[in-house]
Amino acid sequence: MALTLAIWSTYSIVTITLGALLYFHPLSRFPGPRLAAVSNVWYAYHWLSGRWPWAVEDALRKYGPVVRVAPHELAFFTPQALTDIYSPHHKNIEIFVKTNFQNRGKDLGGLIWEEDPVRHREVARKLSPAFSSRFIRSLEPIVHEYMDYFVTQMKDLGADSAGVPLVRWTNWLAMDMSADLAWNEKMHQMRDRKDSVHLDALLSFNSFATVLQVFKRFPLFKPLQYLFAPFGKITVFSQIERATRSSVLRRIEQRGKTEHVDYFDHILPVDASLPSNERELVHIGSVALQVMFAGWGPMGDLFYGSLVLLLEHPESYAALAAEIRRSFSNYEDIVPEALSHLSYLHACVEETLRMLPSNLTGLPRISPGAAVDGQYIPRGVSTPVMALQFLPFTHATQYT
């Protein structure tokens, strides 16, 4: 009797919950997979399978530009949603704040992962001069140094019948360059033809990072997430922490005495106070590491993607080569100022960014209770905006 009552009680609770999520939840008016409306299983399955962007693309084509992809999450696919979610600020503070999607623990938010909009604004304000045209121009010699070395290596290796492991080389190029620009560190991955501890750890933990963010939605099962950890690489993770700490301490000691300017000059200027405790040091290290990663991931994708797309489309490669050879007689003449009029080169870069966006997570934000693309989104709803190249736009003359 007691068992029967327990079964019926459980059945009733589940039925009522499912009914509420499907028909009475504030997001019930939005289309999407029914499984996604009642649980995070649909979300988890597609993330863990590595097919999340394509699953969302299929949902877009089936349901339209706003899709319910989890009980409390809506994915948007319109330019107006992009503006409504990421542009609104009040006194320079974000209104749609970050979710815990990339939360890695206390004081590790740094810049990119920082959920507190006030603290994020403080860090961003310090770094903003580092992205001025003047400062970027001062870094051009370092960029040329690494790019020239890469081109030389490609010439030497290109004749090899075995071919070139392009993913590896573009990763090495991007991270070697980024580490030097971030905090004057020479990783020498291209020279040694070997992954640094940073790159090894990042590539090894990519899939586990996905597991960590998925299990945030299943708190009862969270202890199981460690079963998916790459145990053979656990020591690498501790090595990257030690290496980062060592690099930050070394760079702090070198303030005002570096070989060239770098982004760390803005993270902790020469006239700024030294970190007074472990918490401040961890924060500085987190910001510096994220700046380095930001220069590696997107740029590595761009280098690799542009080369692959050009190789896959010989006619485009021929058109780009012709434009460059018409414009320059010598390799040494190729400098940023001289590239501004190369329209086909710009088109190739923009098409690469469209075809291979560096971030396909949707960069979710939490709605404060506001309108997005003309529709009111309740407070607390996660609102990612997926890459717009998935949008099947068919109205070519709409803006003419």
From TrEMBL:
The keyword DNA repair does not apply. Pfam families: p450. The chain crosses the membrane at residues 6-24. The keyword Signal does not apply. It comes from the Eukaryota. InterPro entries: Cyt_P450, Cyt_P450_sf, Cytochrome_P450_monoxygenase. One of its GO terms (molecular function) is oxidoreductase activity, acting on paired donors, with incorporation or reduction of molecular oxygen. Keywords: Heme, Iron, Membrane, Metal-binding, Transmembrane, Transmembrane helix. Its cofactor is heme. Belongs to the cytochrome P450 family. This is Cytochrome P450.
